[in-house]
Design brief:
The chain has three domains: 2-110 and 304-318, NadA-like (Rossmann fold); 113-213, 3-Layer(aba) Sandwich (Rossmann fold), CATH 3.40.50.10800; 217-293, NadA-like (Rossmann fold, 3-Layer(aba) Sandwich), CATH 3.40.50.10800. The strands form three sheets. A five-stranded parallel beta sheet has the order 6-5-7-9-8. A four-stranded parallel beta sheet has the order 2-1-3-4, sandwiched between helices. Helix content is 46%, strand content 13%. The protein has helices spanning 2-14, 20-39, 52-55, 65-74, 86-95, 111-114, 118-127, 141-145, 156-162, 174-184, 222-231, 245-250, 257-266, 278-287, 309-318, 327-343, and strands spanning 42-47, 61-63, 79-83, 100-102, 133-136, 149-151, 168-171, 188-189, 207-208, 236-239, 253-254, 271-275, 292-294. The model has no long low-confidence stretch (mean pLDDT 94). It is built from 16 helices and 13 strands. Helix 4 runs parallel beside helix 5 and helix 9 crosses helix 10. Helix 12 (245-250) links the parallel strand 10 and strand 11 (253-254). The chain is globular. The protein starts with a helix and ends with a helix. It is of the alpha/beta class. Bound molecules: 1,3-dihydroxyacetonephosphate and iron/sulfur cluster. 1,3-dihydroxyacetonephosphate binds at residues 48, 64-65, 138, 152-154, 214, 240, 242, 256-257.
Amino acid sequence: MFAEAIYEDLKTKLADVVPEFELHYKADLAAEIIRLKQERNAVILGHNYMEPALFHSIPDFTGDSLFLSRKAAETDKDIIVFCGVEFMAETAKILNPEKTVLLPAAKAGCSLAESITAEDVQQLKAQFPGVPVVTYINTYADVKAETDVCCTSGNAAAVVESLKSDTIIFLPDEFLAGNVAKETGKHIIFPTKTPGMKFNNGLDYQMVGWHGRCEVHDKFNVRDIENVRQQFPDVVIVAHPECSPEVVEASDFSGSTTGMIRYVEETKAPRYLLLTECSMGDNIAAANPDKEMLRLCSVRCPHMNQITMEETRDALKYTQYVIDVPEHIRVRAVKAVERMLAIG
Ligand code: 13P
Ligand code: SF4
């Protein structure tokens, strides 16, 4: 009966984007997951990139990285199941050392998090002594531990401006850094990985970046946008700030995943091109049946894609995969995360 009610709810929301047999199958799974969640006193946090049936059935909260970090910080449940990627679950653990945090996949990484190590940050700090370091939340705990304050795509410019520093190191996403530099009127440079190299003080720069990229958003380019605008002159183009500054410049709006969702909801235009992960495109399409969503291609994040409903059920059943952060790293990383949450 419970599964039947979930099926009816999913059908109302997703009949146009998910086949009927899949809705039946996923409704049964969702009923089992919700029962396990209650038995184990768990909360499920679901990132906006989760596939439509999961996104619309089992999470207690859905949202972008910033919102879910806040929810992780607030929860009183014993177990946090993070339907997202590893750096998100790790952030939840950094904020909740006494709770069990589970990621429903043995490995769900992120090309940005993989792009930089704690040693890289140490080297940069030696090259630019005294310059505050802002790290994107899409990094691992040991990198966060080396930095002053974290940010997400939802608050990056606000975090940079809050520091009131002439120069800032911003890591590791070169595109997000480029977009923030533009927004805050700073000139950005990208140093080479040369140990011991000192920068000429005569150079005019206020931001120091790193060459990390999101493998999903890196695929979009300005030529694609021009082609779509030629075919559909009334299209509204919405891009995540992990896209290149040129792509963001050629778009009509750029914001965090939740910012993009709200923008489509609040805008009256009939047709949109979404430059982001394609499951979120499905979720936006489901929530806005009166609007047409164009997609350039089917770009699923291969890491977000690891999180399935079967794996989420098994996470709760078998307490897997447990996220651990060594305490000496956590106590340093938590300062950067809490500082970000305090900025808002
Ligand atoms: P948001 O913080 O905008 O949800 O983005 C996270 C992410 O990994 C986007 O690729
Ligand atoms: Fe990382 Fe890009 Fe996947 Fe987001 S979409 S988790 S930034 S690889």
